[in-house]
Write a structure and sequence with these properties.
With 278 residues, the protein is α/β, with parallel strands linked by helices. It has one domain (11-277): 4-Layer Sandwich (Purple Acid Phosphatase, chain A, domain 2), CATH 3.60.21. Helix content is 26%, strand content 26%. It is built from 7 helices and 13 strands. The strands form 2 sheets. Strands 1, 2, 3, 4, 11, 12 and 13 form a 7-stranded mixed β-sheet that branches. A 6-stranded mixed β-sheet has the order 5-6-7-8-10-9, covered by helices on one side. Bound molecules: fe (ii) ion (2 copies). One fe (ii) ion binds at residues 18, 49-50, 76, 186, 188.
Length: 278
């Protein structure tokens, strides 16, 4: 894997795609050192909506992920599947709910975290509206959040948790020049469309999944196939094989907040083990 050089006056921010189950959480936590030392990432945001056996995030997992060195956590449609996360969402300053959720829903609509160099980065989460529970307009919600952001916070990362590429592209174009990056999550499948729009906003429809790739979106293949074919109710347990971390990094200019470079990363468990053994 070729690691691109990071220009001076830039920070490299990584959004890690949906972390699925114990294999995903372990892979994420074990990868932090590689992400910092090899990929030269300054700030890590991880979408952790599937951490708890595929749906939700437990308090213990939140603490584990943050203790491992992840800077901020986003979620998605599975945000409240573990009810206990509500108290974390209410009190902690590095985890957000989708900004287009009701104002009374537990959680804050954005957070501001700092890189080790002291550069502030705003993290915003939005939920799409195709095949999702009814939510407020994401365009209006992100406009409201941006209006309240301190002007000096130039680097703004938006995790758009959505099903439809049309939703994602519309939001990417809408926010071009207003945020550093619009990066998709939720489909668990990385797309090959990363680019920087004319206004300086990095964009990609989906950054992929962190978890077992020998699976159907992270769940064991046989039960999902069986239920799809027969309608026989099954529980879809998290798969275990071929664990990978998927995400997308963006190099952002510290002064302007504009994206300078964007790239996908996919790290396999075996590669990580080999790196640790060197
Ligand atoms: Fe997900
Ligand atoms: Fe999702």
């Amino acid at each position: 894997m070729t690691i691109p050089t990071k220009k001076t006056n830039c920070v490299r921010v990584l959004l890690v795609g949906d972390v699925v189950g114990k294999p995903g959480v372990t892979m994420l936590c074990d990868s932090v050192r590689w992400l910092r030392e090899v990929l030269q990432v300054d700030l890590i945001v991880a979408n952790s909506e599937n951490a708890a056996d595929g749906a939700g995030l437990t308090k213990a997992q939140y603490h584990k992920i943050i203790a491992a060195g992840v800077d901020a956590i986003t979620l998605g449609d599975h945000i409240y599947r573990k009810k206990e996360i509500a108290s974390i969402l209410a009190t902690e300053l590095n985890i957000v709910k989708p900004a287009n959720f009701p104002s009374d829903a537990p959680g804050r609509d954005h957070c501001i975290v700092k890189t080790m160099q002291g550069v502030s980065v705003a993290v915003i989460s939005l939920l799409g509206r195709v095949f999702m529970r009814p939510v407020d307009c994401p365009f209006a919600a992100v406009t409201r959040v941006l209006r309240h952001l301190p002007d000096e916070v130039r680097i703004r990362i938006c995790d758009l948790h959505a099903e439809a590429t049309s939703d994602m592209q519309a939001m990417g174009r809408f926010l071009d020049g207003k945020v550093t990056a619009v990066l998709g999550t939720h489909t668990h499948v990385a797309t090959a469309d990363e680019e920087i729009f004319p206004g300086g906003t990095a964009f990609q429809c989906d950054v992929g999944m962190t978890g077992p790739h020998k699976s159907i979106l992270g769940r064991a293949i046989d039960p999902v196939l069986n239920t799809t074919l027969t309608f026989d109710p099954n529980s879809f347990h998290v798969a275990t094989e071929d664990v990978r971390l998927s995400g997308t990094w963006v190099d952002a200019d510290i002064e302007s907040g504009k994206a300078i470079n964007i790239g996908r990363v996919q790290l396999r468990e075996a590669e990580l083990k080999q790196w640790y053994s060197l």
